[in-house]
Specification:
The complex is a heterotrimer. Chain B contains 13 helices and no strands. By secondary structure, chain B is an all-alpha fold. In chain C, strands 6-7-8-3-9-10-12-11 form an 8-stranded mixed beta sheet, with helices on both faces. Chain C has a 4-stranded antiparallel beta sheet with strand order 2-1-4-5, covered by helices on one side. The radius of gyration of chain C is 20 Å and the shape is globular. The chains are: A mainly alpha, B mainly alpha, C alpha/beta. The interface between B and C is medium-sized, with 28 and 32 residues.
Chain lengths: 279, 324, 312
């Protein structure tokens, strides 16, 4: 595959990219790779320590942990990507509106964004799920309620700078409606940097989802989502700690993968002015 | 600078109004009739139709939405956030009683983070791409990737169970504080270190550092006086924003370690469907937020003379420094 | 013993596309009390020379040769020894006063600290002295408590000069002190520079790096013209202006507005892929075969006048 040299040389990007690819493969090929059915309850085999039949041992219901971890990839990744995608779109639209129309609309939106920017998403998410009831839909709603805010600020900035450029005035001169201009000219130029931001957020989102599920407010057992698995395994922590080790490691690794990717992307995109010297 | 403060206060009030409105509306999104839910909470029995009607009459729940809303706003203004459905105590009091514990945890975690992360970041920036730098960067990357609740549990297994050095749960002594504070602090230390390093590296490449070198100043003076003062600016702002993450982390950590702070109480209230507490806490947290934001803004203005200048005179600040 | 003697200086930078030869065998002499202007286009290597003398080049630079200052080879000194010379004996006034001043410290502080470091003054004395220096450079003493962004471009340049003068250095290296300033302000700065070099007794030595021939004409006793990392002509300012011998120098003078603004054809060469032979030959009207085959050495054509050209 033809990649720019900078991409190939950046170890972070490579490491992150490979790991993520690995997770995606696991997610897609789960039924083929997992040795057991993740929901197969076998009480007689419960709480087995990692051994030859069960590489990661079994949980409180006798289910094979390795299989559950592999299937868990599907839930964590998909959910995180869905949430991030929605946040991106929402943030993009709201930011674009703010930047494009300017004036009072802009001022108002940005003031709200300023304050919301640092508000802990999780706390509100907890409360929303707490009130609406735990389910996947509510989880998504909860995480999206404040999640779009980070993208808005950047989207608005980009839109402002693009607005000044000639091709937008040209489109306006040709009589394009506002919606048309935003959709065809502004947005395609704003999306790429936001995607970079999104990569950095996926890791954080995976952590949020896991945390909420751990608290019983996200994905519900018996679904093999990593956070939910940790929630179930909580009661065995002192007697059979192995139940908790592997799902936690899985979370850490997947988040690490996205963070590596995000860091690598940031390095690559940063203009290499440091090596230039003015003569 | 007073002009800026007043403007911020206005916005703060506006935001609080919005937050109040939203938190009040939350209850109306709950599945089922709020009255039914509350009665079931309090009595533990399924309410009859009559009981529901009576309750709604008594508490004015059958009045139009906006009327109830303004009633809520009026009560808040008087400091009355309602009563917990579980304990029967005023929500505000429940919060106040436990806030100290959370503060203790948070302050310890922040102190540990700052003390460890800032120097590490500075030293890493002094010798970029050295072994020290690589090791700390990887450690920091791992630090922000670990789920805090899992870390807490793993630490518990390790130090309390296996080694028996520290207690797992509870509150009271310094020993009880160590594990939760460390758990909370890890993520923060990691991200702070990364930020400090990045900020320092940026500053060290700027032209005015070259001037300082041309003057023949010592390296220590250049780093700790010239570079640091500028490099700290973005770090401080982030510290203020980290406050939010701190609170979020506290919720989880308190639950894991059974630390009697507002986080644990909130979770317990959520499990118990104690709606008044949920509503009230959201509001209080929003208020604290707004306050902290304001303080950070002020601190930022004090640190960066250029910002002070802008706010006071409404003039455009000078162009950002160029890299050399 | 010459005051400053740069001997066969080579400064190369490794880059992704090859070796950048910013300075390729530079020989230069400066006498005590004299002002030498180093003139050339942007990208000719002038600033690099200044940075090489003060050893402020990035670690990626490869430096060969010697730089003799009052009998000491600056390139052979330890980091600490060099640090003590910087600011105290040799002061470099960097370009871009806009970004070269620390925005978080008052300008008074930035002057005082040099005094505290090199002259061992206590804080109070240092501040007092700083105020005096500011007055000398035309800035009211009270403004020592102000920050860089509170000054205009011309004032900031004065601050940079004040910082340079703080410890009364024997050698001042001024890098483009008039760049980006209004013509009237430029005149003021030039007057100031004259006052602090020739206006004192004994006069202070200065290496003036500039692309502005007018400024060079007013301040410099001698002129060194630099092209593509090499000195192509070096001699007394007045003589060179009257009758420039190197084609490039002639071109520079002809390009001046008062002489008709005639441009030199062609483009500045890349410092990575220099033309073979004489670096200027592709743009030279008098170029002959010999010029593309060999690089001309510096030829002495008169007392204190050297030219790097076969046919000068």
């Amino acid at each position: 595959m033809q990649l720019p040299r900078e991409v190939k040389e950046n170890k972070l990007l490579l490491a992150g990219g490979i790991l993520i690819l690995g997770f995606i493969v696991l997610a897609l090929l789960a039924p083929a790779i997992a040795p057991y059915d993740p929901n197969d309850v076998r009480i007689e085999d419960r709480l087995l320590v990692p051994g030859e039949h069960h590489l990661m041992g079994t949980d409180g219901f006798g289910r094979d942990i390795l299989s559950r971890v592999i299937y868990g990839t599907r839930y964590s990744l998909t959910l995180a990507l869905v949430v991030v995608a929605i946040n991106l779109v929402l943030g993009l639209v709201i930011g674009a509106v703010a930047g494009y129309f300017g004036g009072l609309v802009d001022e108002l939106i940005m003031r709200i964004v300023d304050i919301l920017l640092a508000f802990p998403n999780i706390i509100l998410a907890l409360c929303i799920v707490g009130i609406l009831g735990p389910s996947i839909q509510n989880l998504i709603i909860a995480l999206v309620a404040l999640g779009w805010v980070g993208y808005t600020r950047i989207a608005r900035g980009l839109v402002l700078s693009i607005k000044e450029q000639v091709f937008v005035s040209a489109a306006q001169a040709l009589g394009g409606s506002h919606t048309y201009i935003i959709a065809r000219h502004v947005i395609p130029n704003v999306v790429p940097p936001l995607v970079v931001l999104a990569t950095l957020h996926v890791g954080h989102t995976i952590l949020s989802i896991a945390a909420l599920s751990f608290l019983g407010l996200g994905v519900q057992p018996p679904t093999p989502e990593w956070g939910a698995m940790l929630s179930e395994g909580k009661e065995f922590i002192f007697t059979h700690p192995h139940v908790m080790i592997f799902p936690g490691l899985a979370i850490t690794l997947s988040v690490l993968a996205f963070n590596l990717l995000g860091d690598g992307l940031r390095d690559v995109l940063d203009p290499r002015t440091r090596e230039m010297v003015r003569v | 600078m007073t002009g800026m403060i007043i403007r911020r206060l206005f916005i703060a009030v506006f935001v609080m109004l919005m937050a109040s409105f939203l938190s009040f509306s939350l209850l109306f999104f709950a599945p089922g009739n709020p009255a039914e839910v509350i009665i079931r909470q309090q009595t533990g029995l399924d309410p009859t139709f009559y009981e529901i009607e009576l309750f709604m009459e008594q508490h004015g729940l059958n009045r139009p939405f906006l009327t109830q809303c303004s009633q809520w706003l009026y009560l808040i203004a008087r400091g009355d956030l309602g009563v917990s459905l579980r304990t029967g105590e005023p929500v505000l009091e429940e919060f106040a009683a436990r806030f100290g514990a959370t503060l203790e945890l948070a302050v310890t975690a922040v102190t540990i983070s700052v003390v460890i992360a800032l120097p590490l970041g500075i030293f890493a920036a002094r010798k970029p791409n050295s072994l020290f730098d690589h090791v700390t960067r990887i450690a920091a990357l791992a630090g922000i990737s670990i789920p805090d609740f899992w870390l807490g549990l793993m630490l518990m297994v390790c130090f309390a169970l296996v080694l028996g050095w520290l207690p797992c749960f509870g509150y009271g002594t310094l020993m009880h504080l160590i594990l939760p504070a460390t758990t909370l602090g890890v993520g923060m230390t990691a991200s702070l270190m990364r930020l400090m390093r990045a900020s320092m590296l940026e500053v060290l490449h700027l032209d005015y550092i070259k001037t300082a070198r041309a003057k023949g100043l010592r390296e220590t003076v250049i780093i700790w006086k010239h570079a640091l003062k500028n490099a700290l600016i973005p770090v401080v702002t982030v510290l203020g924003m980290q406050f939010g993450h701190l609170l979020a982390g506290a919720v989880v950590v308190e639950t894991v370690f059974a630390w009697p702070g507002i986080g644990k109480f909130l979770i317990d209230s959520i499990y118990a469907r104690d709606y008044t507490v949920i509503q009230g806490f959201v509001l209080i947290i929003a208020a604290i937020f707004v306050l902290v934001n304001l303080l950070v803004d002020i601190l930022y203005a004090w640190l960066d003379p250029r910002v002070r200048y802008v706010k006071e005179r409404g003039v455009n600040p000078v162009a950002t420094p160029e890299r050399s | 013993m010459t005051f400053l003697h740069i001997h066969h200086l080579q400064v190369y930078f490794k880059s992704a596309d090859g070796m950048v030869k910013a300075a390729d065998g530079v020989d230069l002499e400066l006498k005590a009390g004299e002002t030498l202007a180093l003139v050339g286009e942007t990208g000719s290597g002038k600033t690099v020379l200044g940075l090489a003398i003060t050893r402020l080049l990035p670690k990626t630079a490869v430096v060969r040769g010697d730089i003799w200052y009052r009998g000491q080879d600056l390139l052979a000194l330890s980091q600490d020894e060099m640090r003590r010379i910087r600011g105290r004996e040799i002061a470099m006034i960097l370009q871009n006063p806009l970004s070269s001043l620390n925005p978080a410290l008052t300008i008074g502080e930035q002057i005082a600290e040099a005094l505290q470091e090199h002259r061992g003054l206590k804080k109070k004395e240092a501040w007092q002295k700083a105020g005096e220096i500011l007055e000398r450079t035309g800035i009211p003493t009270q403004r020592a408590r102000n920050y860089a962004h509170e000054f205009s471009g011309g004032m900031r340049q004065r601050v940079m000069i004040a910082i340079g003068l703080a410890c009364e250095p024997a050698l001042l290296i001024a890098d483009e002190p008039t760049k980006g300033l209004d013509v009237t302000i430029q005149a003021q700065i030039v007057a100031l520079m004259y006052a602090v070099t020739k206006g004192i007794s004994p006069p202070r030595s200065m290496l003036l790096i500039t692309h502005d021939l007018g400024v060079a004409a007013e301040l410099a006793d001698r002129l060194a013209v630099m092209y593509a990392g090499k000195i192509v002509e070096c001699g007394r300012t007045r003589e060179i202006f009257k009758n420039p011998r190197h084609p490039y120098t002639r071109g520079l003078l002809d390009a001046h507005p008062s002489n008709g603004l005639k441009a030199i054809g062609g483009f500045s060469p890349s410092l990575i892929n220099l033309p073979p032979g004489c670096s200027f030959h592709p743009r030279c009207k008098q170029a002959r075969d010999r010029c593309s085959n060999a690089c001309p050495p510096m030829k002495k054509i008169a007392e204190d006048w050297e030219v790097r050209c076969f046919y000068a």
